[in-house]
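Lab channel / #folding
Pinned by the channel admin:
"Please post every new chain as: sequence first, then the structure tokens as a reply. Keep commentary short and put observations after the output so the thread stays searchable."

First post following the new format, from NK:
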Amino acid sequence: MSLVANTGKLAGRTLFITGASRGIGKAIALKAAQDGANVVIAAKTAEPHPKLPGTIYTAAEEIEALGGKALPCIVDVRDEKQIQNAIDAAVKQFNGIDILVNNASAITLTDTEHTDMKRYDLMHNINTRGTFLASKLCLPHLKNSNHAHILNLSPPLNLNPYWFSLHVAYTMAKYGMSMCVLGMAEEFKQYNVGVNALWPRTAIATAAIDMLTGDTSTSRKVDIVSDAAYFMLCKDPKNYTGNFAIDDDVVTEAGVKNLDPYACDPKNVNNLLLDGFLDDPVAKSQHRATVFTVARRRYHTSSVNHKEEKPEAKATSSGQIPQLFESISKSLSADLVKKTQAIYQFNVKGKEEGVWHIDLKNGDGSCGQGEPKSPPDATLTMEGANFADMFAGKLKPTTAFMMGKLKIAGDIQKAMKLEKMMKSLKNKV
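Reply from TO:
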């Protein structure tokens, strides 16, 4: 539901949008199309993805159905020749480029030890290098426009160590996009090219997020980002540049007084999941204490240093946590293993302090006290009471993580798969 009215200011303008076959990129394209804009859909998806809907061709159909003109181009932003060919085709068909939206991005939420260098290279080549390259190649044409914008979908440069400690490789790659804004905004002032960044305050409901967590009820609709991007791209680039904007701040400036309709679930308007890189004022004090390291047989936080034998020595066969794992063990299945493909270690703190695990990668699955036989994909540390609430469905892992109640080491994306797993278990546990 779009709450920012179209003004027609982008009529006849040409937008070059990377990653525009689905999600936020496509939403921005559709919003501009309502003005009668020309949109170059620069994305890799020419064939349908088995789990994610949309191709450059289906996006083109939607754009033209709304009154815009579309040019679908197969583009991998890592490939300079593909970007240049798409730019040349855009200039030939639309006589220039007015706006570049650097939306294409790769994400892997792993800590240093668990980051495969192929994934590291992918994130840096798409996020940082791809953004720089597309901006460089579009610049000669942006110079010729009287309404030239570059908009990067990237976060404010928040140097809180917390955001680096979680996934330093992804943080560096995403901040690379933001540093392009910082530098190019100043560099391109002489050409009257506005360069800005836009980032969502909360999680945004896209097909990718749904596939990752299986739940978008605490997210906002993609419309809030496309509304914000539209309002920003309608501004005078001579006077509007170098901004790191947050979506709800922008739409509020645009005159939207009630943000509730953007929520996916009206019941969760006050319980939305915050996006990364933004410090929640309420949880900020908790965030300061969340930098921690996890070794194979011990874990350490800023307040507690547990020796190897301590967690298992204190765990008992009675209590809420052992009973919970006993129930979980009865609910494991080969189908759940096939869907999850992850091993979890749980470092439980508090009265029932101990180490537990769930193996959903091997056989029919297994769980129990102590560390898993194989290295965990994700290690989760939290208080026993919060742990019980999480498996009872009262506390979602993503919410607990963003509130500082849950600390994660390893593959954060696999940790978030716990939400899907718990949906299968909650009626049995």
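NK: Confidence is low (pLDDT under 50) at residues 282-317.
TO: also worth noting, DSSP finds 17 helices and 14 strands in the chain.
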